[in-house]
Amino acid sequence: MSLKTTVSRNLTGKKVLTFFVLSSVVYFTMIFFTIPKLTDFANGLQIFDMKPNGYSFTYAKELLGNLGKSGRNFYLFRQLPLDFVYPLLFMMSNILILSFFLKKIGKLESWFLLVLFPVIAGVFDYLENFGLIYLLTSYPKISEIGVRIISTFTVIKSLFTSLYFVILLFVLAILIFKKIK
Fold first, then answer.
1. Which residues are within 8 A (CB) of 141 and not within 5 positions of it... i.e. 6 or more apart?
2. I need a surface site. Which of 32, 102, 171, 175 has the fewest CB within 10 A?
């Protein structure tokens, strides 16, 4: 079954809302609990996930060192389990949200490929997470090339997430314009 068929069959307001609520619960748990706790462990440094422009090898070593063993374990066993659930929920909820509004403006068929933006963001979030497992379990023996690759995953994830929200705002603007007209 294709993505388009699956989305079309599940494009109800109730399902869109359910996935939005589920992804929001996980997101806000990270934002208000695990990420602030990690920032405390790291003496105020931002964690990798919160660096949309990437990070250097020097920054990665400093962050991992500041986290200490307890902070690295918290990252590995508290933050990352949530961040392995979140990308899937992000992809599912945002495919449905964008598809729902594309259908409302009559562009679901012709603009359907736009729903791939949250999918690409989610895939790179997973790649970033696997890279973070490497960093957290290999520290202090991490490679500079490894950090560059993982940082690139973070940047691409952030780029496609941002582009997705720009697309969503554009579609919502069209919908509002159509409603006003």
1. none
2. 32
Q: How far apart are CA 174 and CA 111, in angstroms?
A: 13
Q: What tokens were used for 19?
A: 């996935």
CB of 48 within 8 A of CB of 132? yes
Cβ–Cβ < 8 Å for 105, 177: no
- Return the half-sphere exposure (C-beta side, CA atoms, 13 A cut-off) of residue 136: 22
Domain ranges of the chain: 3-173
pTM listed for this prediction: 0.94
Q: Do the Cβ atoms of 76 and 137 come closer than 8 Å?
A: yes
pLDDT level of residue 158 (50, 70, 90 thresholds): very high
CA-to-CA distance for 48 and 41, rounded, in angstroms? Answer: 13
Measure CA of the first residue to CA of the last residue in the chain; give whole Å. 37
Distance CA 43, CA 22 (A): 31
Any idea which residue has 């079309």 for tokens? 8
> In angstroms, rounded to a whole number, what is the distance separating the alpha carbons of residues 7 and 19?
13
